[in-house]
Design goal:
The complex is a heterodimer of chains A (918) and B (371).
Chain A (H helix, E strand, L loop, with lengths): L1 H10 L2 E3 L7 E10 H11 L3 E3 L9 E10 H8 L5 E5 L4 E6 L37 H4 L4 E4 L10 E10 L10 E4 L4 E4 L5 E7 L1 E8 L6 E7 L3 E2 L2 E3 L17 H4 L5 E5 H5 L10 H5 L5 E2 L9 E2 L7 E5 L2 E2 L4 E2 L4 E2 L6 E7 L13 E7 L8 E6 L3 E11 L3 E10 L2 H5 L9 E16 L2 E15 L4 E17 L4 E18 L7 E19 L4 E21 L9 E3 L2 E15 L4 E15 L2 E6 L10 E7 L4 E19 L2 E12 L1 E4 L10 E4 L7 E14 L4 E18 L15 E17 L4 E16 L14 E2 L6 E10 L4 E10 L3 E2 L2 E7 L2 E6 L5 E2 L3 E11 L9 E9 L9 E7 L2 E8 L5 E9 L1
Parallel strand pairs in A: 3-6, 7-13, 8-14, 8-15, 19-24
Antiparallel strand pairs in A: 1-2, 2-4, 5-6, 8-11, 9-10, 9-12, 12-13, 16-23, 17-18, 19-20, 21-22, 23-24, 25-26, 25-58, 26-27, 27-28, 28-29, 29-30, 30-31, 31-32, 32-33, 33-34, 33-35, 35-36, 36-39, 37-38, 39-40, 40-43, 41-42, 43-44, 44-45, 45-46, 46-47, 46-48, 48-49, 49-54, 50-53, 51-52, 54-55, 55-58, ...
Chain B lengths: L15 E4 L12 E8 L5 E7 L10 E2 L4 E6 L4 E8 L2 E4 L9 E7 L5 E4 L2 E4 L4 E9 L2 E9 L7 E13 L6 E3 L5 E3 L6 E7 L4 E4 L7 E11 L8 E10 L2 H14 L17 E3 L7 E2 L3 E3 L3 E7 H4 L10 E4 L2 H7 L3 E10 L2 E9 H4 L15
Parallel strand pairs in B: 2-21, 2-22, 10-22
Antiparallel strand pairs in B: 2-3, 3-4, 3-7, 5-6, 5-8, 6-7, 8-9, 8-10, 9-20, 11-12, 12-18, 13-16, 13-17, 13-19, 14-15, 19-23, 24-26, 25-26
The chains are: A mainly beta (918), B mainly beta (371).
Chain lengths: 918, 371
Amino acid sequence: MRKSLLIASLLFLTILVNAQTTVRISGRFDSVPAINFFRQIEESTPYFFYYDSTQLDSVTVNLTAQDLLLNDLLKQAFQNSDIQFAIDGQNRVFITKKITLITSLPPNFFKVTDSLQIVDHTQALTSSKGSNNKKSTILENRIYEVGIKTNTIKQGKATISGYVRNNKTGEPVINASVFVDSLNRNAVSDQNGYYSLTLPMGRYKLNVQSLGMDDENYNVVVYSDGSLDFELKEHVALLKEVVISTQKVANINRVQMGVERLNIEAIKTVPTVFGEADIIRAVTTLPGVKTVGEASTGLNVRGGSADQNLVLMNGATVYNPSHFFGMFSAFNPEIVKDIELYKSSIPAKFGGRLSSVLDIGLREGNKKDITGSAGIGLVTSRFNIEGPLVKNKTSFILGGRSTYANWLLKMLPHPYNDSKASFYDVNMVVSHRMNPKNDLYFTGYISNDHFNLASDTTYGYRNLNFNIRWKHQFNTKLLSYFSVGSDQYQYQVDSKENKVNAYKLTFDINQLNLRSDFAYSFNSDHNFEFGFNTIRYNLHPGSYQPNSEQSLVTPDVVPNEQAFESAAYFSDRYTVSTKLSLNGGIRYSVFNYLGPHSINSYAPGSPKDESTIVSTKEYGVGKIINTYHGPEYRFSVRYAFSLSFSVKAGFNSQRQYIHMMSNTTAIAPTDIWKLSDPNVKPQQGNQASIGLYKNLKSNTIESSVEVYYKKIRDYLDYKPGAKLILNHHVETDVINTRGKAYGAELMIKKTSGKLNGWIGYTYSRILLQMDDSTVSAPVNGGRWYPANYDKPHDVTVVGNFKVNHRFSLSMNVTYSTGRPITLPIGRFYYAGSQRVLYADRNSYRIPDYFRTDFAMNIDGNYKVKQKTHNSWTIGVYNLTGRRNAYSVYYVSENGLVKGYKLSIFGSAIPFINFNIRF
Amino acid sequence: MRRLKFLFLLFVFATCRDKYDFPLRETDVSLLVVEGVLNAGQGPTTISLSRTLKLSDKATIKPITKAKLTVEGKNGGTFPLSETGNGNYTNAQLPLVFGQEYRLRIQTSDNKEYLSDYVIAKQTPAIDSISWKKKNDGVTIYANTHDANNKTRYYKWDYDETWEIRSFYYTEFRWTSGTTIIRSPGYHSVCWKYARSTSINLGSTVQLQSDVVSEAPLIVIPSLSDKLSVRYSIIVRQQSLTKEAYEYLQLMKKNTESIGSIFDAQPSELKGNIKCVTNPEEGVVGYLTASSIPEKRIFITAGEAGWFFPQDCPFVEVPNQPDSIASWVPGYLPFSAAKEMFGSVARYNFAPASCVDCVTRGGDVNRPSYW
């Protein structure tokens, strides 16, 4: 449209050139953009225009000129706007906004005078043409109009929505805050960069910001509902810049509490063993998150056990997020965009686990160019490539990692040098934009581990996930997501050497997910989210099969378990006033345990064991054996006392229908999962929390204190010597336990500047009690006892210091109380050896844990026009070489009892990593 | 199922294990420990009684003496065991009948009474063979057995080892005391050493179609060990267990032997089948079982195993002078004459004691009856 207008107007332009100062111009200009207007004049006159094109973006010229001098022409053209102009003696025309340039020095400039006059709106500028100015200021002066333009702005409210994208790659910017200064109201973009904001119609200044991106300000006029996309630039510090900190107030404004966000840049600055950026290790540096030791990627969030965390990767449930016996997490840092950990206010759309949701967002491929990166480390190497399939429409990102750790294992002393370990993982994301209202996303993931430890037994496990998500925008107020996916986890143990006993043990979980989620901006005060989802579980709890022709192994198959877990939810974010907002949600979950299966009934009031089985009932295919259902409440409230201080409180309840069966301290690859059934009740948890949030120093420092109390019902603990694998009636080996957890979390975070990072302190307790009255000899006589991961004090400091743009130093320091451990109370002699005697569980603690890690990140040069960009990471894990105890134990060796302390990384471990981007 | 367990005994890159004595809060727990099997076959029955000790206690075992032990049959009959010292109580031949149930009653000198549950007298199948294999890390010895009736299913083994050792040098001299050296008899250059099992060896065939134990590993003789330097013998005794006894011993093994890995299960309390009658709260360690105990002995020679046993045995010439002799004994001992003049020895050949006198290597000079 605009182009054709331009051509039309050109036809009417005639110029009369007489003398240098008497150029006269004629022509008709109908809504000609000012810049084109200048160009036309430049082409036919000796004048040359200097202007800032972005200031003139929305300025058009409407006039008919008949032999006008330039001065008059411009006066007429801009009479009703704030555009100023100045013409100097050399036919240079300076176009400015609001301020007028003085093209000659004041007559008395060289005379010393007492009264220097400064004219309002006038100041001297050095001449600069067009786009030489810094780009980020450019957009700020443009006015964006949203909706159907009307002469006067109507009363009432309107919803604006759209995407926040990276201007270079076209990728969505997640968690960008779109903030309205004057209303103290903000919206946060979702995983697809989508935001929706309801405002009274009118003129606003919107501030759009996201971590790692330059802040942008937009002048917006909202006439009615409409869409507006924002593009943010990656924060590239070319020059030493002046940091203007604006409202980094997400932590103050958000209603939710107990939410931790880390983007991949922050994760990469946390030094880890072998130098691999590790998502789960980075999460463990956050307050309220613990792990039993270095050989475990199991997270214990606010007193929850490792199976009480829902680990989602682009919506796919990952059951075993670890590689290499738990040394690494199974997420490729090159593909991950960011993570969110919900510790307390878990949104109503999530459910099924008691403690937390770790939501891992993957990147979308670059929609404009093919790019990629590769990295080489001591133990793994990785490669990823991304780019458009159809430019600006469809993109892909593909990443893989693989290990070559066998050389490390070969350096072990005999016989462990015969060990073998290998793993790989592959991620793929394809995103396709059908049209502005419909997007499709495909996510695929596989991770595979295989190892044996100097024995003939090999272990393998695998995660396999894929899902397809369709995002549909009905209108600016209603947005929907539909997804279907499959998640699988399986493991296998093989032994072949002894032909008679050769066996193969397999376990797997399969789940099919169906989800629909809706976000509806009802009005400026109410934002609804609702949806429905269902999971179909099919679980093979164990199959034990002969593994050679001579094998005498009897096949033993624990029958399949099937179930549906469905939930519907509704939540409302209600902005009562600028200070007070509420978030209330309810989720109703229903769990149906399905046949075919046979269910034992036990004599009521007596302990469950084989001798108390009174009857066994067979259920047919698809028969509902039993149903558990109940509401889960999610409520939080925020009151902002000021722009930098708020108080939040929350309550939430959770139900969990699938349980990991593990009586080991760390998650073992042979742990099985079990669905709730008539004999194994779902776990339930309630948590209440309250927090204070205060930002300091122009919001560059965030501080918070959160306090929580949590109760857990029907947590599963085990009888002494419980058999969990291949147990056809595992309920006889588990004991219902209740738990209580409480604690306080303090965090101070500096988000910008040369030195950034956080300090977190956590005080937390988790105590368990076997309250099953049928159990004759409960653990510790039925008294409260600390769980394995009860570590009351924990201090973590994560710091990153940018020496210059190419060189930065990272350090983290962790201290925590030692975890509880069961130690002997005495000794006896039996079967030719001294042996130790145990009594109360977890009545001792291993020595306190302390570790310091250090890393240097060295980037290659920043020349834009080079094929590849390199970087190095060099560092030391456990700098002080402290032999932190993983466990303390007493073992009988050659007839004598000996006490030992086992350390996983008992020395300083240097590492080096090379990364290349192209 | 033993193999399914995650046995990462010692794991990893920088993983290290340090000796560590934890500052334990020691309590005065003194429980009765009962070990033994009622022998339902031919042969004596021995039950050992002891008490649990503090970890810091110096003693290895604290035997209980002056207790009264009787075996009671469910269908009648009581059979006493008599004290033989060191906390051992024996009956040379109990007249037990397979399939019948028996229990053990213990009265200690402090007037406490303990009683076991009734246990069934099981017939244990014979050991088919004791086999061995040489691998990189040494020789592994295995038990093989089967029960044609598929009834036994749970097995336990213990064993006694005997091996012959020889001194590097044959000797004709002997240092007696001070600086006195006499000629013949020289040192013993042939000795026998003994060891008994120190671990709980269990086997189960419940996962197998037929009750066949194939190559259940019992012991590894590590490379360069002196056990196979000449000739080695092992006698293996086999017991059959009930499921409960197996689980109890399995748990004891987990608690006390298979610990120290990354994926350890929690150590836990043991609940056996012996209870204190006078004080039901008091725990008792041990699980009484009753079965016949067939045994089997095998011999392996160094030649068969292709064994290599290195000994570092340099010798030195020592003048027959009190000062010189005193400076070498007892670490070095004389074994032959280096130089004889006029019927008397001018210089002796001395070698490290372990190369000369097999008693210094912990050997016993008496030839066992089966050798």
